[in-house]
Amino acid sequence: MELFRKVFGEFIGTFMLVFVGTATIVLANPDPLTIGLAFGLAVTAMDYAIGHGGLSDGHFNPAVTIAMAINDRVPVRDGLFFILAQFFAGICAAAFVGVLGNAVGVPAGSYGQTDFPVVNAGLAFSFEAIITFLFVFVILMTTSKEYGSKQMASIAIGGTLTLLVIVALNITGGSLNPARSLGPALFAGGTALSHYWVYLCAPITGAVAAAFIAKFMGSEQGLTDADD
């Protein structure tokens, strides 16, 4: 029952993240600051809502879950269920955004999908890997037993996501999250789907690097099984 509750928490949190972020892109005709805040505040709100109370581990991102599993903060079995829930949530959120967009007359194919029309795939991959590395490193350090602050971690994480999305928006769309990009890519098709491999592999690459470097910096000092 506890695992089911955590998995469902990951679904809700990821749905909130993808829905709020992509709906802002599709429906609100926003500027980069608004889009960054939509993603960042969604993460902060859901982390406070369900992450702090133990209803979820508050990952909402397969790359984060992989980094947590590498550093033994989540069992591999649990992590696999989290990742499945995150991907499914992203697909459901994108479908709902599509329904709303169709209802208000948004042009067909608008799902808030990520793509990199101004750079090549190699640069897009490197950029997404770097920004995901920075994001996951912040998560691991601010949630560490030795150096973190449970009450302030959510704000730091949401603020970091906001800044990185703003920086990346006109380059790669600022995914940092394979689940955020999958649903929109599936429904939008085209280059968003054919380029999805970048948004799957680059964040995972960055997250794996962040896990090892954060551990080197002491992120896992003081952690016990009871703290996982």
Q: Give the low-confidence spans.
A: 224-228
Computed over alpha carbons, the radius of gyration is 16 Å
Tell me the overall shape.
Answer: globular
How is the main sheet built? Answer: none
Give the count of helical stretches.
9
- Helix/strand structural class: mainly alpha
Question: In whole angstroms, how far apart are the ends?
Answer: 17 Å
Q: In total, how many beta strands?
A: 0
Fraction of helical residues: over 70%
What sequence of helices (H) and strands (E) makes up the elements? HHHHHHHHH
Task: Provide keyphrases for this structure.
228 residues; mainly alpha; 9 helices; 0% strand; disordered C terminus
What does this entry show, briefly?
By secondary structure, this protein is mostly helical. The chain is built from nine helices and no strands.
What does this structure look like?
This protein is mainly alpha-helical and 228 residues long. It is 71% helix and 0% strand. The chain is globular. The two termini are 17 Å apart. The model is unreliable at 224-228 (pLDDT under 50).
